[in-house]
Amino acid sequence: MRLYITGGTGLVGGNIIRLARRRGDIEIIAAQYGPPPEWDVDYILDPLDMADTAAVRASIQRYQPNAVIHCAAILDHVWMHENRAAAWRATVDGNQAFAQSCAEVGARYVFVSSDWVFDGQEALVDEDSPPMPVLYYGFMKAVCERDIMGVAGLSYGIGRLAGVYGINYSSPSLLRKQNDVGFDLGNYVVDQLSRGLVAEIWTGPKVNDVAHPTLASDGAEMLLRLAEHDENGIFHCWGSEAVGRLQFAFHFADAFQVDRTLIAPVPTDPQVLDRYRHIRIPFRTVSSNEKTSKALGRSTYKVLDGMRDYKAQWDAFHGASV
Ligand SMILES: NC(=O)c1ccc[n+]([C@@H]2O[C@H](COP(=O)([O-])OP(=O)(O)OC[C@H]3O[C@@H](n4cnc5c(N)ncnc54)[C@H](OP(=O)(O)O)[C@@H]3O)[C@@H](O)[C@H]2O)c1
């Protein structure tokens, strides 16, 4: 398979490339936006800004891939809220260009979407639940999903992820957030606790309190399966189990056998509350992945399975246990 991937320096994209390289039967073309990845690149890198729709078309035409996994995204919610036109060009127009180009060259298109197409208010959502976004990021993702469904002749899979954590193998020096309104807590918690420092977990307003955390390598495996699948639709590629963010932090401490009493639930940082004052965050998303598990032939990890693998990956990557 000739696989074209965007966002290869990111947490998810880097894990997909890692998986694809290990398979050995996948030719990789990675669209490159900012600085190149930090690992040895033994595949094609093609400079690309997804906001440049003509360049997107030209790149897909040039490489004629069998499948495209579009992972690249802007994840800075404050920036998106304040720069809506630019965010729209990159996210919505960029997606439209990828989807149409895939239809033109007959490539399977996998778009990476998010649980934040939901408002986090329903008791349970599944792949067929209508979206109800409450922030601009989720709104654009929902628009992208709909746009894809309208492209004639396109083979597509919309792979939604949630609360992704893990090791960004392609760009490990990229700092992840210190704490997060979402579920990107893992590296921060492990790093703090392993140094005997308190890990503060925001539990006040403007945080996602319950979600389905997804180990990046596990989500990557699902997205790669989706690229090789032929059914059109929406697929929940996130972790199989919902958990509260504080409990999630405790699981990291237990998995790494570090002192869980150093985890401190604190009110959300006032500066964050101020920056997010106009932005709503989905509070609690609980979902079924049943349709996806059946279609793709495997279930994603439950929380403790993900922790086990994350610990093993951390030890292998950092050379020793904390
Ligand atoms: N992380 C989560 O918790 C989460 C949850 C749900 C869904 N998702 C979705 O999963 C996907 C991957 O997320 P991630 O966590 O891997 O994000 P990430 O680590 O922030 O990576 C984002 C990638 O997008 C690239 N990018 C940004 N702007 C671009 C542009 N204008 N043109 C081309 N590439 C651009 C970045 O390139 P540079 O590195 O050069 O800036 C980077 O490679 C996204 O679609 C995201 O919406 C993530």
CATH C-level category of the domain at 2-165 and 214-240 and 287-301: Alpha Beta
Structural class: alpha/beta
- Main β-sheet description: 7 strands, parallel
Total beta-strand segments: 13
CATH topology of the domain at 2-165 and 214-240 and 287-301: Rossmann fold
Supply the CATH superfamily name of the domain at 2-165 and 214-240 and 287-301: NAD(P)-binding Rossmann-like Domain
* Helix share, percent: 25-40%
Overall, the morphology is globular
Strand content: 15-25%
Bound ligand species: NADP nicotinamide-adenine-dinucleotide phosphate
- Assigned CATH architecture of the domain at 2-165 and 214-240 and 287-301: 3-Layer(aba) Sandwich
Largest sheet strand order: 3-2-1-4-5-6-11
Helix-strand pattern, N to C? EHEEHEHHEHEEHEEEHEEHEHHH
Tally of separate helices: 11
Amino- and carboxy-terminal Cα gap: 38 Å
Rg on CA atoms, Å: 19 Å
The whole-number mean of residue pLDDT values reads: 95
Low-confidence stretches: none
